[in-house]
Design goal:
The chain is of the alpha+beta class. The chain has one domain. It has 3 helices and 4 strands. The chain has a 4-stranded mixed beta sheet. Bound molecules: zinc ion (ZN).
Length: 78
């Protein structure tokens, strides 16, 4: 899940990552196996960094699933 405005950037990396354990980079950063800086997404974009492919994929799937999840939870009540 994409939460907040802070993203992870690996030292020397050209990509930034969301705090999302579906991404292997983010999950090792969160576990502490990889060291990364936390900056805002705006700052990452200003530095010319791009969103990591796997984070983008998860984020888009998340967006796509959200309205359906809502509908599903409404229908479950009946
Ligand atoms: Zn990522």
């Amino acid at each position: 899940m994409h939460k907040g405005n802070l993203v992870y950037v690996l030292p020397g990396g050209k990509k930034y990552h969301y705090k999302d354990d579906d991404c292997s980079y983010s999950s090792s950063i969160m576990k502490g196996t990889k060291k990364a800086k936390q900056i805002t997404e705006d700052e990452a974009k200003r530095r010319g960094l791009t969103l990591c492919k796997s984070c983008r994929k998860e984020y888009q799937e998340d967006l796509r699933e959200r309205p359906f999840g809502l509908i599903r939870s409404i229908f479950k009540k009946f």
